[in-house]
Amino acid sequence: MHARRHILALAASCTALAASLAPAATQAQDNWPSKPITMVVPYPPGGTSDVVGRQLAQRLREELGQVVVVDNKAGAATAIGATLVARAPKDGYTVLLSAGTTFTVNPHLNDKLQYKLEDFEPVAPVCTVPFAFVVKKDFPARTLKEYAAYAKANPGKINNATNGQGSMVHLLGELIATGLDAKMTQVHYKGAAPATMDMIGGVIDSNVEALTNAVPNVNAGQYRALAVLSAERQPLMPDVPTFRELGYPDVVGETWYAVFVPVGTPQPVVDKLAAAVRKITASPSFAEAMRKIGNEPQTGSPADLRKTTLAQSQQWGALIKRLNIKAE
């Protein structure tokens, strides 16, 4: 009897403790954010992702009334930064701003990743990064149709640059080769900068480039753009047609940046952060800032982001499997 009374007393004290903690947890959610937020950007400083991260952080600071610190955690094709956030406390004070490839491409290339999509709660999309298909300035083809004909007449002789084996640019290059039914030799560089240098030098025949890189060089006459891979024409390249317009409806591809938090982050915190990001991405000033660097702002809900991520994971996973693409 004495043991039973002891168990009941213990149960009552646990219930009381849980009841006292519940309001504190609710209060912490209601007061979020009450301290600085860390935004992990899994890339080195200075690139497009870093520019997007800093633009977003500055505006979130104004929107949420708290400092948002950008923390560049580069390495292992975003896996270092993504793993860090996946293991962070689930309180909304550590968020990930990453390109879609973290979830749509990397898991299909590396089965030893320390994170998976299920470790994250999608918050909101931020922007898309459109790509242009460019050729060296003295390449014999003046149009995409001529490029396709040349590629078929010279199988394997066209050298197409990529940013590295298994990179998004590599996948887009393979998507173009498949769409044009052409054999191209994919030449893997260590990043966008050396590939761009060889495009300017005429060492390489063609390349898929983010508009950020392509627009200034095309405008300066360093090389030519034959088509864009987005669904619609791009404001920064209004005279350049889409692959879709030119009769290649399946050659559509872009990457995007979005915000994620660790799964289990309280719903009120996710909702508040998602609403803040949506308000920012819908603003004319953010749209202008993104378009200046060749990106398109994107506004959407957590559900929209989840749907996009899953659909693109399926698309790129199928291409990687079909072509047996391996990570470097």
Number of strands: 11
- Give the fraction of residues assigned to helices: 40-55%
Q: What can be said about the biggest beta sheet?
A: 6 strands, mixed
Class per helix and strand makeup: alpha/beta
Helix count equals 12
Give me the Rg, rounded.
23 Å
Mean pLDDT: 90
Q: What characteristics describe this protein?
A:
328 residues; alpha/beta; six-stranded mixed sheet; five-stranded mixed sheet; 11 strands
What does this structure look like?
It contains 12 helices and 11 strands. By secondary structure, it is α/β, with parallel strands linked by helices. A 6-stranded mixed sheet has the order 2-1-3-10-4-11, sandwiched between helices. The protein has a 5-stranded mixed sheet with strand order 7-6-8-5-9, sandwiched between helices. The longest helix is centred in the first third of the chain and has 29 residues, at 2-30. It starts with a helix and ends in a 5-residue tail after the last helix.
